[in-house]
Amino acid sequence: MSSDPDAPSDATSTPDASRSGETLLETRGLVKEFGGLVATDDVSIDVKRGERVSIIGPNGAGKSTLINLITRRLEPTRGDILFKGESIVQMEPHQVVQRGISKSFQTASIFPDLTVMENAQIAALAAEHGEFGFNFLTHRDKLTDVHELAEDTLEAVGLLDRAHNDAEDLPYGDKRRLEIGIALAAEPDLLLMDEPTAGMSPEETQATVDLIEEVKEEMGLTFVLVEHDMEIVFSISDRIVVLNRGGVIAEGTPEEIRGDPAVQEAYLGGVEL
Ligand SMILES: Nc1ncnc2c1ncn2[C@@H]1O[C@H](COP(=O)(O)OP(=O)(O)OP(=O)(O)O)[C@@H](O)[C@H]1O
């Protein structure tokens, strides 16, 4: 348990969630080569606790590759990734999740035949047990925790009234909300989102953006977003990192990025953002 008197009291916060300003994630000289192709070219970025950072760039710029390196789905060719000051490049993907990095919109994160509540419970159970294994003596308390966590998660993403529907019967936008919920059930410090609004109607997109804002406010979450929709990027980000051909060509606040001629040239061929 936390002895930090400043620690927020809600169940979803970690004991050190109040240390905003601390660097949570850092990549150092990160390189990923696929054969002769340099997909990630010497990328050094940092993300502070509580920040909302968007990664933008043209098709093939290396955005998804960077996310997949951070989640350890891809092996870097060179460089280091630090999370809470600890190198994670030798870790397995599940260990990275345990350290507090969660990615939403992973393919097939939903079990379609199970109810919304069962999906949330499985995610909460995985978060509770993780690599620590199953402890028979604490089974009862753990299960109570899991039920509460699943319920809190569904409430946070606005799906509690659909808890007993089969996941496959949810409308598309609600499925994406459930995916966010599944990622949140792991109680991450850092949420990575790769194109969360892809394939959504304008209404669903707005609802998802509102949800991301709510979650950020309620949970004090730090997130890194890959998104093509510039309206979303400019409205939601504290800071924007621009990639082109694997390298960082600009970094700054939405205002700074909007006025950056190099970004306009590289990213949109000179069209004003
Ligand atoms: N597994 C892979 N094997 C070989 N090349 C790859 C692989 N994954 C990505 N690439 C290449 O690396 C480069 C960066 O791809 P990546 O998917 O990271 O870009 P992106 O910025 O996410 O693009 P998009 O916006 O189109 O999703 C591209 O040239 C891509 O073809």
From TrEMBL:
<feature type="domain" description="ABC transporter">
    <location>
        <begin position="25"/>
        <end position="270"/>
    </location>
</feature>
<dbReference type="InterPro" id="IPR051120">
    <property type="entry name" value="ABC_AA/LPS_Transport"/>
</dbReference>
<keyword id="KW-0029">Amino-acid transport</keyword>
<dbReference type="GO" id="GO:0016887">
    <property type="term" value="F:ATP hydrolysis activity"/>
</dbReference>
<dbReference type="InterPro" id="IPR003439">
    <property type="entry name" value="ABC_transporter-like_ATP-bd"/>
</dbReference>
<keyword id="KW-0813">Transport</keyword>
<protein>
    <recommendedName>
        <fullName>Probable branched-chain amino acid transport ATP-binding protein LivG</fullName>
    </recommendedName>
</protein>
<comment type="function">
    <text>Probable component of a branched-chain amino-acid transport system.</text>
</comment>
<keyword id="KW-0067">ATP-binding</keyword>
<comment type="similarity">
    <text>Belongs to the ABC transporter superfamily.</text>
</comment>
<dbReference type="Pfam" id="PF12399">
    <property type="entry name" value="BCA_ABC_TP_C"/>
</dbReference>
<dbReference type="Pfam" id="PF00005">
    <property type="entry name" value="ABC_tran"/>
</dbReference>
<keyword id="KW-0547">Nucleotide-binding</keyword>
<dbReference type="GO" id="GO:0005524">
    <property type="term" value="F:ATP binding"/>
</dbReference>
<dbReference type="GO" id="GO:0006865">
    <property type="term" value="P:amino acid transport"/>
</dbReference>
<dbReference type="InterPro" id="IPR003593">
    <property type="entry name" value="AAA+_ATPase"/>
</dbReference>
<dbReference type="GO" id="GO:0005886">
    <property type="term" value="C:plasma membrane"/>
</dbReference>
<feature type="compositionally biased region" description="Low complexity">
    <location>
        <begin position="1"/>
        <end position="18"/>
    </location>
</feature>
<dbReference type="InterPro" id="IPR027417">
    <property type="entry name" value="P-loop_NTPase"/>
</dbReference>
<dbReference type="InterPro" id="IPR032823">
    <property type="entry name" value="BCA_ABC_TP_C"/>
</dbReference>
<feature type="region of interest" description="Disordered">
    <location>
        <begin position="1"/>
        <end position="23"/>
    </location>
</feature>
